[in-house]
Amino acid sequence: xxxTVRAEVITIGxxxxxGQITDTNTQWISTELTTLGIRTVRKTSVGDEAGVILDxxxxxxxxxxxxxxxxxxxxxxxxxxxKTLCQFFNVGMVRNQQALELVTGFFEKRGREMTDxxxxxxxxxxxxxxxxxxxxxxxxxxxxENDTVYISxxxxxxxxxxLMTNRFLPKLKERFDxxxxxxxxxxxxxxxxxxxxxxxxxxxxxxxxHIRLAYLPSFxxxxxxxxxxxxxxxxxxxxxxxxxxxxxxxxxxNVYGFDGDEIENVVIKLLKEKNLMLGVAESCTGGQxxxxxxxxxxxxxxxxxxxxxxxxxxxxxxxxxxxxTLAEFGAVSEPxxxxxxxxxxxxxxxxxxxxxxxxxxxxxxxxxxxxGTIWIACATDHGTxxxxxKLGQYREQNITLTTxxxxxxxxxxxxxxxxx
Length: 420
Fold this sequence. Notes:
This is CinA-like protein. Residues 8-175 form the MoaB/Mog domain. The protein has helices at 14-17, 25-36, 50-63, 81-89, 97-109, 116-119, 157-175, 193-199, 201-205, 233-251, 263-274, 288-293, 312-319, 323-329, 334-348, 395-418; strands spanning 6-12, 39-46, 66-70, 93-95, 123-125, 129-131, 140-145, 148-153, 180-189, 211-218, 221-230, 255-258, 278-282, 303-308, 352-358, 373-380, 383-390. The protein is of the alpha/beta class. It folds into three domains: 6-175, 3-Layer(aba) Sandwich (Molybdenum Cofactor Biosythetic Enzyme, Chain A), CATH 3.40.980.10; 180-258, Alpha-Beta Plaits, CATH 3.30.70.2860; 263-418, CinA-like (Maf protein, Alpha-Beta Complex), CATH 3.90.950.20. The strands form four sheets. A six-stranded mixed β-sheet has the order 2-1-3-8-7-6, sandwiched between helices.
């Protein structure tokens, strides 16, 4: 029977704790471990102090079958991981000939002088199995002590990823009889987490014990992640598909995609399928809608361009918004945002136009139109549809939410138009 294998990831470095760099290693490692069938139970970041590193190692050893350490393997005095591992295992340091040859060749190839500090990269705890790093001089190390595997990796992301992919993941697969862990993601938009939980409560309660549900909320979206654990990958896939089929009638209206789908990818795919061109008019989002769309490769096939019409003058001159509309209803209003969507469609000669206008904050609000008052619109041959959003006080959050909601409005209208 496959065994349950638990992992802990420890990142070492003051620069992470000080916020000087972002730790992307643990996310990548956890994703790869999950694919392999190993469950990450904790992630810990510690500074360059032997005492706290030792505490983290002892705690991890008590609850994990695999302990993965990144960082602290450089040649300078602040890189203390190897020395601390010697303390942890109560062993001495020895010079590894294979590692020394690699370090020597690394410097000779580049015509650089090698110092004693560089030679010290080849010194390893005597119980370590040396694992060659093809991209740098910091060694990879494998320890198998007291039924726990310890892996020590350099903190440089591309070096770490190379070692994990080519060396350590295959070794872990050989070392453990691993279960299959399979995920299915259902992506929803425009519905709150608690409301969604109430709608699917009976379905969730009926899930079999080996399938777990997690709610992953973000800006205007909630991802439902189903995780199935077992021995047969194909069987788990069939079971996950069956559970998705059961839940879909309950939440169909709010589901925009699955697994790796993003809302921008979904709308671009729909536009391509229907051979439609899109134009974007933005006020409060300041170009974020266009920026989000243009992250997707191949978007030029369906995206003509956009206009950031922040002032009323630009709304009138560039998009043709009637001055009387602006005077009577204001820039943040249904009539104005509709004329913006229609105007950009005419200006760029596109099949579809979408628009945003609102008060993103933190100031600019009035009693009638407080911060977070937003209007979005979508214009097509079938007419123009607008939506009123009542968001919060935080500018960046409002801009991101508006971007997601206007793309969802576009998706809805395309679905209605083409019964897709």
